[in-house]
Amino acid sequence: MRRLKILLIKHSALEMYIESYGDVKVGKDKSPAVSIANDKSHDVSIASDKSVNLSIANEKSLVMNVAKGQLDSVNFDDELFVWPWMVILKNIVTDFNPKSRKYYGKNHKQIKEELIMKGFHPMKVTAPWNHQGQTPFAIVEFGREWDGFHNAMMLERGFQAEHCGKRDYLGLWEQERGDRLFGWMARRDDYNVKDIVGKHLQEKGDLKTVSGKEAEDNRKAKKLVSGLENTLKRKTEELEQTASKYDEANVSLRKAMEQKEMMLEHFNKEISKMRQVECEYQEKVSKDHEKSRLELEARRNELMSREKDLQKRQADNHNERTKLYFEKKHKEKEKLHKKIHDLERGLDAKQALELEIEQLKGAFQVMNHIGETDPDEKKKLEAIRMELQEKEEELENVEDLQQTLVVQERKTNDELQDARKKLISWIGCPKNTAQVIISVKRMGEVDIKPFLEAAKRKISDEMNEKAATKRKLSEAGKMKAIEWCSKWDDCVKDPSWHPFKVVTDKEGNSKVHDAVATALKELNEYNPSGRYPVPELWNFKEGRKASLKEGVSHLVKIWKSNKGKKTY
């Protein structure tokens, strides 16, 4: 459909162009003939038929015949002109410039502006130059159309009216010409002259007669009209074929549209059914989903209740295990104390027995010397010997018991050490020991607190003039303290470093000195070979090593506090 419309539009435009082309060509062909006739005062009347049915070809033929008759009246038929139409200007005033040693005159722009002001319409003006400078000649081009020919003829008639035509130029001597400007249309004799003007005419144009140019235009017009007529005929045939195809396509389209309407109606019915089924299915799915959601929510609540119950039981089990563990440790500790007490009593008994044995041995030796002659003394000696033997056997039993107790004490001590290590690992090293009584301390590690105080004081004195903020002072002091403490910590860990230097008092204060000295003493006491800090249970309030009982009591206290904070 769209293609058919385009073809119709092109067809109409082609017909309009053919009709208008004849009018335009007729107008162009009339121009030079009428103009020339007016210049020569020829009265020529153009008979035209104003009938509506007059064809374009008859009108054009009539006008061309009239124009040809006018040109014959001025003898232009066989006269050769330079085409594109040109006018030669001569005797242009030029002045010699001593500096450049060349001649200069009006340039092509000035000449063109003067001609335009006089009512002419030149297309281009050329002012030739040679080795001496600008020549006194100029060539004015008026184009290839009949309007240009009319302008060129008018310019030539203007020069002839002022007696500045070609004949006037050739009939005068150079001195007689003066400053007058001469001009005429370029013809065959100008074209064939072997000078700078003739060379330019040969390069830019050809020789043509007016009748030859008219015949050439007629041939082109006829050829164009013939081509347009053929094109119009071909387009008309294509239009008829396209119209036929359009009718066929229109019928097919009508059938297709009817089928489409039927299919669309069927499709809408099916869509309505599908939507109804979909709504019913969605309603069913929604109900099932709501039912499943309620069941899932009930199951979730049940699981959450079980989870809370399980967490409570786990917490109770953990608390019970912790309680049993502490009770077991307490019983083991009491048993250990009892064993230590028994061991101490056994040791006292052993020492008393050893003393008694020594006394009996001394008495036995004395009685042995005395009782060699006295039978009674011999009996006493035998009794002492038997008692001494019993005491020695008793001493052996006591030593065996003591050895057993020592082994048991060592085993129990190992268990206590393991319990102490376990307690240390549970409590861990706190970041802040300011409010802690019982905790873990790394023995042999330099305390950073004195360094922080000294660094803040030193940085504050240095940055006082700059009016630094508290935050900047705190950050700078912290960095300085860490750097300072790290340096002394490396010195303490170095086995080859032993002396205490006064520089600590100068750089910091007595607290810094005490911190370094304490770290070195603790490292020598707890880990002299490894030279690295070791964790130890510590009573920060009293500044001493904490007992296992204190650690267990502290852990029980923490456990009770955390137990009270738990919520289920």
TrEMBL record:
Residues 218-411 form a coiled coil. Residues 510-565 form the Factor of DNA methylation 1-5/IDN2 domain. One of its GO terms (biological process) is gene silencing by siRNA-directed DNA methylation. Keywords: Coiled coil. It comes from the Eukaryota. Residues 78-192 form the XS domain. Pfam families: XH (PF03469), XS (PF03468). InterPro entries: FDM1-5/IDN2 (IPR045177), FDM1-5/IDN2_XH (IPR005379), XS_domain (IPR005380), XS_domain_sf (IPR038588). This is Putative XS domain-containing protein. It comes from Medicago truncatula (Barrel medic).
